[in-house]
Request: fold
Amino acid sequence: MKDKIKTLQREIAKAIQEARTPTALDEVQNTYFGRKGKLTMILRAVRDLPEKDRPSIGKIVNSAKLDLESRLNERKAMLEGQGSSLDEEWADVTEPGIRPPEGHLHLVTHAIREITSIFDTIGFTRVRYPEVDWDWYAFESLNMPADHPARDEWETFFMDAPPGKKGKMVLTPHTSNSQVREMERGEFPIRMIDIAKCYRRQSDVTHVPMFHQFEGLYVDKDVSIAHLRGILDYFVKAFFGPDRKTRLRPFHFRFTEPSFEIDVSCDACGGSGKNEQGEKCRMCKRGWLELGGAGMVHPNVLSAGGIDSTEYSGLAFGWGVERTYMMKEGLKVDDIRTLYRNDIRFLKQF
Ligand code: DAH
Reply:
């Protein structure tokens, strides 16, 4: 009996010590001190002991009870006095901190970086020129005199500012303004890639008023269409994949002669223009996707940049960043304006 009391006393003392909240302590109290609690039962059992054992055992039980009650009260005072539970206060200093939400680069920034690094490997340096520029660089020097109807295509925003010697100021409607600016630096050979914002008065599911283009320019002696093909082939294979092919399709731009539109073979149908069922491919036109413009720099543009067109020749190309990137990923964004709506649910996917 004595041993039983001692063991129980130890068990209860431990339970009291380990209770970390007032509620947990209440539970301990019920289990042991309650009407059917283990301690209460033992106290009752003393009554049934033979007369001669009762005083000595009774003493032990009573002192155990007193000891435990005072422990219980002490613990209770401590837990309640703290006003909060030990669990809440307890801090694991080795636990990793809470990280703030982490963002990532916009998909257009990714595209710009990738384009830059592809051209970097073949010696094209990224340059930057104004995104608000004079009419002269955006049009006139590119063989588009004032009032020439070709200008209409560029749906230009004009700045409400007094015209200067180089005409009115415009929000650059294409990156081709960088061509003559780069020529004016007078260093040869020219191998530049200009990636910048462009602005046009347009907004619908396939157009945004602010978008990006990348403009390449290579000027040296004996630059030919073969170089143009080589450069574009290289870019398309590096950016879209080694199986993709390019095609030059005759076109007209005022600042290049001859001019081309560049097509890249369709990934969905492998360039055949037909899907597996033999029906017309829905992604492309007869196996090709239109990417952008290119051509051999017009002699008038070289002259505007102070370059002797009998000695030097050049090639140029200009494509939209957003468009090119969406083709690469096979992204079917049904409204291109989503790119700039800053909806985190959309942007998080990339
Ligand atoms: N600037 C033209 C546009 O915005 C694209 C372009 C076509 C750029 C031919 C070029 C080029 O450099 O040679 O539509």
Notes: The chain has twelve helices and nine strands. The beta strands are 125-127, 132-134, 169-171, 190-199, 210-220, 246-251, 256-265, 288-297, 313-320.
